[in-house]
Amino acid sequence: MTTKATGAQLRAARNALDWSIEELAEKSGVSVRTIIRYEQHDEVPPTRGGNLYSLIAALEAAGIEFIGSPEDGPGIRIHSASTKS
Fold it and tell me: Does residue 33 contact residue 21 with C-beta atoms inside 8 Å?
């Protein structure tokens, strides 16, 4: 499990799964407003209450792998066997 992800990675992961913000909110338990705020950051968004962890967990459960580090080459990898949800 990844513990950090950038807002750009979150946007890319959600778009790769073709999920709306509302779908990600439902699957992660994180509010739409928080997701919008996080996705506006190109770096790791400031977070509290485990929201970033919840978003990452939901995206990883759907087949997204967060690669690189926030400081060096952040990206995503899509595991096609898990992307159908």
Answer: no
Q: State the pLDDT at residue 77.
A: 96
For 36-79, how does the pLDDT look when each residue is reduced to its tens digit (9 = 90+)?
A: 999 998 899 988 889 999 999 999 999 999 999 888 889 999 99
For the chain, the DSSP string reads: --S---HHHHHHHHHHTT--HHHHHHHH---HHHHHHHHT-SSPPP--TTHHHHHHHHHHHTTEEEEEETTEEEEEEE-GGG---
43-45-46 Cα angle (round to 5): 135
Span between the terminal Cα atoms of the chain, in Å: 20
